[in-house]
Amino acid sequence: MSPPSTAVVYDQHGPPDTVTRVTKIPPVEMNENEVCVKMLAAPINPADINRIEG
């Protein structure tokens, strides 16, 4: 099993500071030939902000 994860998600378009929320992602089954990589941080691409804003 993978460890539980945290993600920032959005359900509607608008200002990122009001439409995004942090949510927990449940663990998933992993196969023997898969690895789990822990990410400490990830950049936000300006194109992602444009998509959220609509």
From TrEMBL:
Identify the InterPro entries for this entry: GroES-like_sf (IPR011032), Mito_Enoyl-ACP_Reductase (IPR051034)
Q: Which UniProt keywords apply?
A: NADP, Oxidoreductase
- What SUPFAM superfamilies does the record tag this protein with? GroES-like (SSF50129)
Residue numbers spanned by region Disordered: 1-22
Gene3D superfamilies according to UniProt: Medium-chain alcohol dehydrogenases, catalytic domain
NADP keyword on record: yes
Q: Could you state a single Gene Ontology molecular function term? A: oxidoreductase activity
The highest taxon in the source lineage is Eukaryota
Record keywords: NADP included? yes
Q: What is this protein called?
A: Trans-2-enoyl CoA reductase
Could you tell me which species this protein originates from?
Answer: Solanum tuberosum
